[in-house]
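User: Could you write out the 3D structure of this protein bound to iron/sulfur cluster? I've included everything you need below.
Assistant: Certainly. Input first, then the structure.
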Amino acid sequence: MANPVAQAGREARQRHGWWRSNRFLILRRSSQLLILLMFLSGPLWGTWILRGNYSASLLLETIPLTDPLMMLESLLAGHWPAWLVWVGAAVVLVYGLIGNRVFCGWVCPLNPVADLAAWLRRKLGLRQSASLPRSLRYGILIAVLVGSVVSGTLLWEWVNPVALMGRGLIHGTGEGALGWLKGLVAAFGAGIWLIVALFLFDLLVVEHGWCGHLCPVGALYGVIGSQGVVQISAERRENCTRCMDCLHVCPEPQILREPLLLQKGTPRVANETCIACGRCIDVCAENVFEIKTKFHYSGAKK
Ligand code: SF4
Ligand code: SF4
């Protein structure tokens, strides 16, 4: 029988303990924090590990990293990117070998905001939601690209909340903790209201509204990573008790329907919208889920 939404993960905590039922969540938060600290290492400690921002950066003053959406916009707007930008985009394409939207789950600074809204939704029992098609994000992605051609500018970068949040966190650095806080407020400026609006949109209007339905950055990363190596698999789906905890916490629950609930075809969650967050693994008391590589399925276990 399905567990109450607000109690998703409780059974796993009771059975497997706190660490084991939160391990991917803790690892993801550590990854997000570590990347932010790498950006802040220059202003705070005088050694740049990552210089730049979430759209374009330089790792250890050597390896460039470029947001592929920004590069596409630049090309379509008629600006030929510098060679370093091309190399940076190629490096990010290697990310595609890892799989799906790993950026969303493990890197993006907006992910904790979206997760907080989803967590509050569950705790407050806010299940009513306006409905938007999840394919809308691909429409927005196309509109952004066409808009860049027409306007001759990097259209999305004016409002991109991923970049905005990153800029606020990174360039909000001042002297000392107080200076950092003051700088943070100044750097976010009016943009903080966009982040607050997205949070409230997720909390009160559409469940997983921004990341699950609108964000073109996540949509493009999904397309790039769709043939990636890492995949979540409902490997022991025959053990599923239909407690629904994984569906309660998954930001893209529709992708679990076929492999888990219908138990049709391959057990892998072979969908480009999976953000590889591992939360389904955390909260499943029956240990149904595992991380596999796609090569695992080229053998006998299809
Ligand atoms: S969908 Fe967009 S905002 Fe959400 S985590 Fe992915 S990149 Fe970040
Ligand atoms: S299927 Fe699992 S790993 Fe993929 S998004 Fe849902 S909870 Fe996260």
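The beta strands are 50-52, 56-59, 63-66, 230-233, 290-293.
User: Perfect, thank you.
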